[in-house]
Specification:
Beta-galactosidase, Chain A, domain 5, Protein-glucosylgalactosylhydroxylysine glucosidase
């Protein structure tokens, strides 16, 4: 990859040999890997139960541009603008192809062609548009519909519903026909062409979106409105480092691809279909976890987005609320009360994992979901999400599940969760997974807390199970075994027990934290999923060992497949592609590791530590209780600026914030627009007003 002065632009003159690593273009509703003749729509799946997968939708913009004479190629992904650009330069002309999934109008995808004459010539310049599109799909029975305002139209339904009696989604595509060639006439120095594609679930919406696209083209607003939407997004978040170009590019790539998986911050449709490990551009049958939503969304991707975008965080919670009926059905089928969220989720919330054992035993998903809700409340104080938004049903339903799922054993006077699979999927049918039991405990405690806030009577069993559930601990070796009977030194697949410290926040001494890290780091599969090492890095940063943390974080670079910063699940390039889970873990290592941010009930805690090769970390737009803060971290100094802000989803006005320095107890009010600089006092807390 060439070194570009702008770290937000990834440029190359050669496409990756493995086309899986071409950049995905997505907007939370439509997802597509450039040049691929298949794309996907959020919430459109085909297949029943374990056969359910993202339905392949044919893409009319699967077009490559060719010039007849020798050319020099340049391929760029501009992450600031969300546009992929292919430039072909010859002696006589330059052709530029731009592709994007519109950031503001979610049903719209665009291809633009610009042809410029480079030499004085009276000859016409012709470009070929080589298309691999066919109007067919193995998942959707398409029929040709009547043309609409010059656009071609096909419509169809998926062949099989997600569950018996369920509905089959409808898909309408309307697009500008793509000719075989385009010509720049002799008398013109340049010419532009625009091609739009609309994908929607109804004819009315498809036609309205196509009308919108044509109007935007006619007024010259199509591309500017897209770029403006991306600009607005980037103004609300920035994560950049000085001192390491590779780290800076990696962070920008992570933010870009994660944001691409979420809807517009102005979207009010409530139709968001969640985030799968490979995003919307991937997930067809047998690929990239079939496009299902896992704990990856709630534990790995969500925290880094929620820190900046409360509206996008709420969209994740609303997705889970929309699957309550399915979760209730799952619990009943297992013989338990309350809600059991699926290990693999599509639209209904019913379990769609192809292998039953994961859905039956990997029950920590319930605690992962409720942890996201808890995180959201502490960040925003948005109680409307729990009242009118039905978030309380999720929290109470999961609490009821835990109470019905545990067993009481008189011999140790503890509650137990038997027959489970921990996050480390090398083991199954084990008892008392320390991670599972801890997220159950946290979920039950939060249910009691929320019930008090909402003046809802809480069953006494919630508190009792939370208090007496077993959290495995080895007194002799002073560490947490992964589950009851785990033999120290046995191999593990991925981050599991090390997540007790972060993100779960289980209280423990520095000695125990260190022992957990040292016990599991050497036995963790080096070829395991990419998100693992970020959790180890955060642990070492908590203990003040920045360089050890950095060595572990650098392992993640093996999963970044150039030139477009696309992640693979495994370091050898195998597994899921555009692996958003790994990106989320990596991003958290910086956002919650270098800064030490901890979202707590009464405050946002901060304790920063930078490794030697990072001179400066800029984090812009941290959104806490409706107030946005910009941070500039250096080795011995932190500068904080509180922005003027409208408020969070649950607060019409932002709360007044004050900083309390941990060492001295000094209280410092934050004044909007005024920089607050602290030197040699990098441990502080930001306090909120009480509920």
């Amino acid at each position: 990859m060439s070194c570009d002065s702008d770290p937000y632009i990834f440029t190359t003159d050669t496409l990756p040999s493995n086309l899986r690593f071409l950049p995905p273009l997505a907007n939370g509703h439509l997802g597509w890997r450039v040049y691929n003749n298949i794309m996907h729509m959020g919430g459109v799946y085909n297949g029943e139960g374990g056969r359910c997968h993202r339905a392949d939708v044919p893409c009319p913009l699967a077009v490559k541009v060719e010039l007849e004479e020798p050319v020099q190629h340049t391929y760029s992904l501009d992450t600031h603008k969300g546009i992929f650009i292919h430039t072909l330069s010859s002696a006589s002309a330059t052709a530029t192809q731009s592709l994007y999934s519109h950031r503001h109008y979610p049903n719209l995808m665009v291809m633009e062609i610009l042809l410029e004459r480079q030499a004085t010539s009276q000859e016409p310049v012709t470009v070929k548009l080589v298309s691999s599109f066919t109007p067919q799909s193995k998942d959707i029975r398409f029929e040709t519909g009547p043309d609409y305002r010059g656009g071609s139209h096909i419509q169809g339904q998926t062949t099989t519903a997600e569950y018996p009696g369920g509905s089959c989604p409808t898909v309408h595509l309307i697009w500008t026909p793509v000719p075989v060639t385009l010509m720049l006439p002799p008398e013109h120095s340049e010419a532009r062409w625009g091609f739009i594609l609309v994908a929607a679930s109804s004819l009315d919406l498809a036609e309205a979106s196509f009308d919108e696209g044509l109007n935007l083209m006619a007024t010259g607003s199509l591309r500017p409105s897209h770029e403006k939407a991306w600009q607005e997004l980037w103004l609300q978040s920035k994560v950049e480092v000085t001192g390491s170009e590779s780290l800076c590019k990696a962070l920008i790539g992570c933010m870009f691809y994660l944001l691409s998986a979420f809807p517009s911050i102005h979207d009010t449709s409530s139709s968001f279909g969640g985030v799968s490990p490979g995003g919307l551009s991937n997930g067809g049958e047998g690929q990239d976890y079939w496009g299902h939503v896992f704990w990856d969304q709630d534990i790995w991707m969500y925290p880094g987005i929620a820190l900046f975008y409360p509206k996008l965080a709420r969209a994740v919670l609303e997705y889970r609320v929309g699957t309550i009926d399915g979760a209730k059905d799952n619990a009943q089928k297992q013989g338990y009360k309350g809600l059991k969220f699926p290990w693999e989720s599509a639209v209904s919330g019913r379990e769609v994992c192809p292998e039953d054992i994961y859905g039956q035993q990997e029950i920590h998903i319930n605690g992962d979901v409720t942890l996201a809700f808890q995180h959201y409340l502490y960040l925003t104080e948005d109680l409307s999400m729990f009242r009118e938004g039905l978030g309380s049903e999720v929290i109470y339903g999961v609490a009821d599940y835990w109470v019905s799922r545990v067993t009481w054993k008189p011999e140790d006077q503890k509650y137990h969760l038997d027959g489970v699979m921990p996050p480390d999927e090398y083991y199954y049918n084990v008892n008392d997974s320390v991670y599972t039991n801890t997220v159950a405990k946290l979920g039950l405690q939060f249910a009691v807390e929320l019930a008090e806030l909402l003046q809802h009577p809480a069953p006494k069993e919630w508190q009792a199970v939370a208090e007496y559930i077993k959290i495995p601990f080895d007194e002799e070796h002073q560490y947490h075994p992964e589950y009851d009977g785990y033999i120290k030194g046995h191999p593990v697949k991925q981050a599991d027990t090390v997540m007790l410290g972060y993100p779960l926040g289980l209280p423990m001494s520095p000695e125990v934290r260190r022992n957990d890290l040292e016990a599991y780091e050497p036995v963790t599969d080096p070829h395991g999923p990419a998100m693992t090492w970020g959790m180890f890095a955060i642990g070492w940063l908590e203990l003040g060992e920045a360089e050890k943390a950095q060595l572990l974080l650098e392992k993640c670079f093996n999963n970044i497949q150039g030139p477009f910063q696309v992640w693979s699940e495994s370091s050898d390039g195998s597994g899921a592609v555009n692996f958003l889970t790994g990106m989320g873990g990596f991003l958290q290592a910086v956002l919650f590791g270098y800064t030490g941010f901890r979202v707590q009930k009464d405050c946002l805690a901060f304790s920063s530590l930078l490794p030697n090769d990072v001179c400066e970390l800029c984090v812009r737009g941290v959104n806490y209780l409706g107030s946005q803060m910009d941070w500039l971290l250096r080795k011995e100094e932190v500068c904080i600026i509180l922005r003027e802000q409208e408020g969070s989803p649950g607060n019409t006005k932002p709360c007044n914030l004050q900083v309390v320095l941990k060492a001295s107890g000094t209280k410092i009010p934050l004044t909007p627009g005024k920089a607050q600089v602290q030197t040699c006092s990098l441990n502080m807390q930001f306090f909120r007003e009480s509920f």
